Amino acid sequence: MKFLAIDGNSILNRAFYGIKLLTTKDGQYTNGIYGFLNILIRLEQEIKPDCVLVAFDLKAKTFRHKLFDGYKAGRKGMPDELAQQMPVLKEILADLGYTIVTKEGFEADDILGTIAKSCSVRGDECYIATGDRDSLQLIDDNVHVALATTQMGKGHTQIMGREEVFEKYGLYPEKLIDLKALMGDTSDNIPGVKGVGEKTAVTLLQNFGSLDGVYENIDDAKIKKGVREKLVNDREMAYLSKILGTIRCDVEMDTAAESYVKKPINCEKVSKTLKSLEMFSLAEKLVPQCSVENINLFDVVESALETVEVKEFDNSLDKAIVYQNGDRFIVMWDKDIYCAQADSRLLKAFLEDESREKIAYDSKSLYTFCIEKNIDVKNITFCMKLAAYLANPLAASYDFERISASADAVAEFECEDSFAPFAQQVYEYYLRFIEDEKQHQLLYEIEMPLAKFSARWSTRALAWTKRHLRILAQCLRHSLQRTSAMSMIWLATSSTSTALNSWARHCLKIWACLQEKRQNRAIPPMRKSLRD
Predict the structure, then answer these.
(1) Which of 111, 128, 212, 375 is 20 to 30 A from 334 in CA distance terms?
(2) Under a CB-based contact definition with an 8 Å cutoff, are residues 74 and 189 in contact?
């Protein structure tokens, strides 16, 4: 049997701090849950366990606090943004069929240690998933640690065995408890021997084998006089630190492997929770064995829906929602739905007709397409993606499914195009939002003009040189002093995807904002090479 034992608190903390804050439209924080579930998916794919346990700490004090009042003293409490995600995560894990274990008086580490010991006795293979190096002491021939680390700014899981621990620390796993006893641990406020650091502690253990060996040979010439004095003075604290740092492997709990085989998934509850958290991309990964009907992320309409045919575009609409889905464009209004190929002459005529109102799903993408195809698009009056961003700047994405669910849209008809049944409701929802929240100026005077400007320059970005950027910087030097507070807030929080580096993108954003604020006024002088 292969066992995966997860340190719930450690992995959740790493997920929370490793991802920018994300919220739903209602302001519920989701980044910790989102990161945890992605790590869980990766662990399952890499380890392919037969049994899974997720251990969590309880708020109550443990036996270690009773032994030493200062244990973990000074640690900051869990931030509210994370605390509110904990019960939701536990609910999701339970609905996904995972077994959650907590034990009063003990930490999650002790639960993991007990399971690891039982696996080792049975001869089962055990992987402990954690971001806490304390669990390295549990490694033996059967027990490995899947250590969550960050490399080059990206999450990574490193499988640690006996040899990997020795290579890193110069000691085998069973000696790491003695190492902590000597050097202490500031993160848990375990004192150790005052003045003894990692290098000295490792040398002592390499010479004398263990904490007991160090004190049995306290008068050995290999121990320097100053180090000997510190060891003698803090002998009691060293042995207390060893107790505090030792993970217990004798917690009274169910250790039978069959108790931790995943249970059937509650598809209905998982679907409902994922929808409320706006985590649509995780649905197929987390519940692949459930039928499509059971994991439907949108509200189900009980009555039969009319089936609407997608027709070839005939340029008959005076007002339409326009978006690209795959290799074709959808142009629709009400139940009139048309598809057009990118090179369609009728589509070009529609986009260039100023009398036809276009509501874009993604105005920047539409502008970029038109620039690349030499289409002079006119009269784009709304952008659903930008409106969704203004409604929730911390959302993970603004794809079709997410903004449909965020707008509480339900299918009005059945159609071969996935977004069409929801598109008009999404448009009307975000149009009301812009009006109700008085976001007209931000959307129409800053965001949408910027999208057009950004699309224009992103198509030419590769032609820019350092010389061009230096010229632009000179043009902006005095203008930046007059940039409004709103522009600076917008500058700090928005982003675009272009081939320019981040500094150049910032310059372009400020320049675009200034252009829109000045309307027809002349922009700061610049050299002809840049104007061209």
Answers:
(1) 375
(2) yes
